[in-house]
Design goal:
The complex is a heterodimer of chains A (481) and B (422). Chain A has eleven helices and 24 strands. By secondary structure, chain A is an alpha/beta fold. Chain B is an alpha/beta fold and 422 residues long. Chain B is 19% helix and 38% strand. In chain B, helix 2 (22-35) packs antiparallel against helix 5 and helix 7 (382-398) packs antiparallel against helix 8. Classes of the chains: A alpha/beta (481), B alpha/beta (422).
């Protein structure tokens, strides 16, 4: 036991790798939240009138809404009036030419291991880099442009492709969907927009990298992905934040639209600052992600590796509206120290012959709480719907918790739905088996955890899979159950 | 919408409540007023809008008075081959003159036991209807099995219920089983008439160490009955408790079944079938609370849903931080036979200890077409083949009933419902 403790201590004393921050001159909104601030943000971003109206409408609805309390997480109430809703590096003047981007900002991303220099990068990924409230650079725009693919920051999209934004914004996650989605709709600052035209297969991975730098600032970004009929895109999202003592709020909205025969693959490696080992600080990650398989034979696949954030509240969902559409959700959620995660998915079967698959692997260590909350809903007309869900939990340490809240609501008799879940710790016999073959306990745990999460990690694009595996090893190294 | 508050629905019950158990009733009343009738969408009653059902046409509920029950009625209600003791109730009131006296078992009215710690097992704070019952129940039955006693023959709690719309029947049962005792209870109620009364039942079972208690219940009330039942038991060291609940009828039925595993090496088993047709809505909420290490729980609920029926299942396994070496298994399977039947299931795990083996599974599906074809290819007609497969599906739960005559009776009822005898 004492050995376990020392290993655990070693683990918990591990610092958050991306905990640094940079001082730059920032253009900030005054602290607080009211209609004035929303007008201020909208004016700052030179937005058209209709978008301002849209924001204000969302804000007015938000005022009537209550903060949700049903999630299995506990955190001090957030004073939304004490936050800053807009913070942008002053030097940012969005240019099409990457050479003109402030080298200081590029350096921030270099330090995170994200090169914004197209030549130096692997040719595989186009990146939209979002720092606090604004997008600072988007790479490979020209290459993508030749195929008709639009990949840019949300603000640019509002100016350059207002019709698309008008058509799809809020079509999957209505502004009044929930408390944090409404808040996001009112104050969102930037994000990524991507449009894949009909019949185009996006030749590279598209990616957004979110970084919170400023203190006392909430990050509210909005991502909108539209895949027209018969197109394909794979999208990656990464995020980090500096180590600060106070909690910071991140309330994003991601909307995905998939037309007939289109396929969208959305992968996230979430590594926000999780708070220190005393549970102080960390990001509150309250995110609404939803995709709609609007056309027949379309497919949306969510893959997430959740290792960061003090509190996570996130349910990437699929609305399976088109006949024969497919929704997938693969998740590994790791919590350590005082982290709390309440995450899962919703699969809403509306079309006929729709299929969904849920694989969720939770790992809790330290004093953390890890909950899976999912819903599989088969509507009356969704004939021959098929779902398979598996949610497993692995416990390390006797002070952590693993919880499962699966809701299964079936309104059609032709549905076939299966759900299974297990909770256990790493078997002593498994470790013994490894020991016997000369593998040290620590390596054995890593091996077992990796094997446990393999089914999900396999779904990640190659570049991400490497990062995710490293992250997993880092988060759990040495925590022998 | 009426301007009356929800609590007014039951206000005359409170005024008419007996004056005994004053402090117990008072606490319960406060608890009821604090909780109120579950609001629509309240998490625990998410799919069972009982408030709406209760308030649909009734402004003010009153207690149903006992009706007359004859010895012939009792005799004809006993199922074939039954050999045991019968305790007869009329609208919740115990009728000693029609009941057997059971050797070495103490039976009395709850009102004759003023020291009884009512509500210490089924706590009124957990459910508004437990609180309502505790605050306003007329009387109930106290059954005590002394320690080191084995009651070989089962004890049948046979209730005859007849009431009108707007009337409440509130049975209250307190069972004590001393250390090292063993006893089997059968619970059946018979609705006389078709009217829509409200049955609000609370059963508390206090078991000693190393007890073996079995409680088999058949719910086959009239098709318009609204029923809520709260059943809670404490299971001590080395003890085993088994519950089998078979729901066949009713308008809206809600069962809250809670097992508290309080001693090591204890075992709690919960089995159930809901075989529903018409517009019947049955909601089974089960809760196993593992508070100590080295305990085991097993749960298997199966549902067959036809017509516009709705089955709700919520199974919660709660493993506390100290409850290491827990084994907990839970399974819920459903077969939908009609387009309009609905299933809402939520097998829930809340685990705070690490050295545990817990699993749950749940399925919703149809009869296996291939199995059906296999039987038809062998000359069994489709209706019979269906019945055979459904019976096999339910059989896994039925075989948990160790009391033969009751088992056979349940089997015959289920076979009859499934439309084929074999």
């Amino acid at each position: 036991m004492s050995k376990d403790n020392s290993i655990l201590e070693e683990l918990t004393s591990k610092e958050y790798e991306h905990g640094w921050s940079v001082n730059y001159e920032a253009d900030e909104a005054p602290i607080g939240l009211n209609e004035g601030i929303i007008r201020w943000i909208s004016a700052k971003k030179e937005e058209p009138e209709w978008l301002l109206e849209w924001r204000l409408k969302a804000f007015r609805t938000w005022l009537t809404m209550k903060e949700p309390e049903w999630a299995n997480v506990h955190y001090p109430k957030i004073d939304l009036q004490a936050l800053r809703y807009y913070s942008a590096p002053k030097q940012v003047k969005k240019t099409k030419n990457l050479d003109e981007v402030d080298p200081e900002l590029i350096a921030i991303y270099e330090r995170l291991g994200i090169s914004l220099n197209e030549q130096k990068r692997l040719q595989g990924i186009a990146v939209d880099a979002v720092l606090d409230s604004v997008s600072v650079a988007t790479t490979f725009r020209d290459t993508l442009g030749k195929l008709g693919i639009v990949f840019c920051s949300f603000s640019e999209a509002v100016k350059e492709h207002p019709d698309l934004i008008k058509k799809y914004l809020g079509s999957v996650v209505p502004m009044t969907d929930n408390y944090y989605a409404a808040l996001n709709s009112a104050v969102f600052s930037d994000g990524s927009f991507c449009y894949i035209p009909k019949g185009v297969r996006c030749p590279m991975e598209l990616s957004t990298y979110f970084r919170i730098n400023a203190a006392n600032t909430g990050q509210f970004e909005r991502t909108l992905i539209v895949a027209d009929d018969e197109s394909y895109v794979s999208y990656l999202e990464g995020c980090t934040a500096p180590q600060r003592d106070e909690n910071q709020l991140h309330a994003a909205v991601v909307e995905i639209y998939a037309g007939a025969h289109a396929e969208v693959k959305y992968s996230t490696v979430q590594n926000w600052f999780p708070g220190d080992k005393e549970g102080k600080g960390g990001i509150f990650n309250f995110v609404t992600k939803r995709g709609i398989c609007a056309g027949d034979h379309s497919k949306i696949s969510w893959t997430q590796v959740e290792t960061g954030s003090a509190v996570t509240w996130k349910y990437p969902s699929c609305i399976l509206k088109g006949d024969y559409s497919i929704g997938e959700f693969y998740s590994v959620a790791v919590t350590n120290n005082y982290q709390q995660a309440d995450t899962g998915t919703k699969m809403i079967h509306i079309g006929k012959n729709t299929k969904s698959r849920i694989v969720s692997k939770g790992i809790s260590a330290g004093k953390s709480q890890n909950s899976y909350r999912g819903q599989v809903q088969v509507m009356k007309r969704a004939d021959n719907a098929r779902n398979f869900s598996q949610c497993d939990s692995l416990l390390m340490g006797d002070r952590c918790g693993a919880h499962t809240f699966p809701y299964i609501d079936i309104n059609n008799s032709s549905a076939k739905v299966e759900h299974e879940a297990t909770t256990s710790k790493i078997g002593e016999d498994q470790i013994f088996y490894c020991n016997q073959r000369g593998i040290a306990t620590e390596d054995a745990v890593a091996l077992i955890v990796n094997g446990y999460a393999k089914e999900v990690l396999n779904q990640l694009p190659m570049e991400f899979a490497v990062e995710a595996q490293k992250l997993l090893a880092l988060t759990l190294e040495g925590s022998v159950g | 919408m009426s301007t009356l508050t929800k609590q007014d629905t039951f206000s005359s019950l409170f005024t008419a409540a007996p004056k005994n158990f004053e402090s117990v009733r008072k606490l319960a009343e406060e608890s009821f007023l604090a909780q109120d009738i579950p609001a629509p969408k309240a998490e625990e009653y998410k799919f069972t809008n009982i408030g709406k059902k209760l308030e649909q046409s009734i402004v003010n509920y009153s207690a149903a008075l006992p009706i007359e029950v004859t010895i012939d009625q009792v005799k004809s209600a006993l199922f074939e081959g039954f050999e045991g003791n019968v305790l007869v109730f009329s609208n919740g009131k115990f009728l000693p003159e029609l009941s057997s006296s059971i050797e070495s078992v103490e039976i009395s009215l709850i009102s004759a036991k003023p020291e009884l710690a009512l509500g210490t097992i089924a706590k009124p704070g957990k459910d508004a209807f437990t609180a309502l019952n505790q605050a306003t129940f007329e009387d109930g039955i106290f059954i005590s099995v002394p320690k080191k006693t084995q009651i070989e023959k089962p004890i049948l709690l046979l209730s005859f219920n007849q009431a009108n719309q707007g009337q409440v029947i509130q049975p209250r049962v307190w069972i004590e089983a001393g250390d090292f005792s063993e006893v089997t209870f059968l619970d059946q109620s018979i609705s006389l008439g078709e009217s829509s009364y409200f049955l609000n039942k609370v059963v508390e079972v206090k078991g000693g160490i190393n007890t073996q208690i079995r409680y088999y219940r058949l719910q086959n009330e009239g098709k318009n009955v609204i029923e809520v039942s709260n059943f809670e038991t404490d299971i001590q060291q080395d003890a085993r408790f088994t519950s089998v609940n078979i729901s066949l009828s009713g308008d809206l039925v809600r069962n809250n079944l809670t097992l508290n595993l309080l001693g090591s090496n204890s075992e709690g088993n919960m089995y159930g079938i809901y075989l529903l047709n018409g517009k019947t809505h049955v909601d089974n909420h089960t809760n196993v609370d593992h508070t100590i290490p080295h305990a085991e729980s097993n749960e298997l609920y199966k549902g067959i849903l036809a017509d516009q029926s709705r089955g709700v299942f919520n199974g919660k396994i709660f493993v506390r931080q100290d409850a290491q070496k827990t084994n907990a298994f839970q399974q819920n399977n459903n077969i939908l036979l009609s387009e309009e039947a609905i299933v809402n299931t939520k097998p829930q795990l809340e685990i705070w200890a690490d050295d545990v083996k817990c699993s749950h599974g749940c399925t919703v599906g149809q009869l296996d077409e291939e199995a059906l074809f296999y039987l038809q290819a062998r000359g069994i007609d489709k209706v019979q083949a269906k019945g055979l497969l459904l019976y096999a599906f339910a059989g896994e739960v039925l075989e948990k009933i160790e009391e033969e005559s009751f088992h056979n009776y349940c089997v015959s009822l289920i076979q009859e419902r499934l439309g084929s005898k074999f």
